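Study this pair:
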Amino acid sequence: MIKFFIFLLMSSTAALAQKDTVRQTDLKYGNFERNRLDLYLPPDVTPKTPFVILIHGGAWVQAGKEYVRDFQEYLLKQGIASVNLNHRYANDSTIHYKQILEDIDQAANYCVKNAAKWNTRADGFSTAGFSSGAHLALLYGYTSSKKINAIVDFSGPTNFTDTSTLNYCIKANLMGLVEKIAGNRFTDVKHVPESFALASPITYAKNIPTFIAHGVIDPVVQIRQSQQLAEKLRSKKAAVEFIQVPGLAHDLDKKPIEKLALYKAAVAFIKKYGQKK
C-alpha cells in the first residue's frame, strides 16, 4: 500500500512538472568548458511542440547565450521550446566552423537523449541565430544529418566567396574573423581558399523552410548576403520568408518596434513549419 501511494505521488509530481514552465540554465551538453546551454520549456510541452536550437552572435569569437535571452523568453511566451547554447570560440589555430558545428550537434544530441525526460521532440528541430549565430544556424541546418524543420536567420553572413563581400571585409577590417571561422588565410579575390566556400551556408542551401530578416543599411553584414541566399533557396523551391527592413543596421536592439515585429514574424514561421514531425 505504501509503495502504491509513493507511485501515485511520484506520478502526480511528474504530471505537475509537465504543466509548469521550465527554465534550467547552464546545463552541460559536452566536454568543453563552453559547452553549456539553457533549456526553456513552455507549460504542457509535448513532442509536437516546436523546438528551437538557438545560437548567439558575437563574430564567432565572443559573447554568449545571454545576448539572445530576450528571444528565448519570447519563444517561451509563445509556447515554443528551446535550448540556447554557448559554443567554443573560433581562433587562428584549432577551432573553426567544423569544430563549432560539432558543438551544435552535441547540443542537439543532448536534446535527443533527454527528449523522453522533457516530453519534447527527438527530431524535427528548428535552428535560429543572430549574426554569426545565424550563419551557424544556417550552416548546421543545411549540413546536419538530423531532420531540421525550419531555420531562422537574423542578419547572418551566408557567402564567403562573394567578391564584393570579400573586398568589403578587407575594407572594414573583418577579414580576420572570416579567416578564423573558415580556418584559412585569405590572399586575394582571385585565390579564395576552398574552406571559404565550405564555411558558407549558401554552398549547401537546400529545401528547408528558411526565415531571413536583414537590415537594409547593415554595415557589418551587407544585405546582399541575405539576398543571395534567398535567391538560391527560391531556385530550389524552398519556402522562404525574406524581410528587408529599411533603416535598420546590424543591431536589432536599436529598433525595438521593428525587432518585435520581426520576432512575431519569426515565431509565426516556426509555428507553421516547426511543428512537423
Q: What stands out?
A: The longest strand covers residues 22-28. Confidence is low (pLDDT under 50) at residues 1-17. Residues 22-273 form a domain with the Rossmann fold fold (CATH 3.40.50.1820).
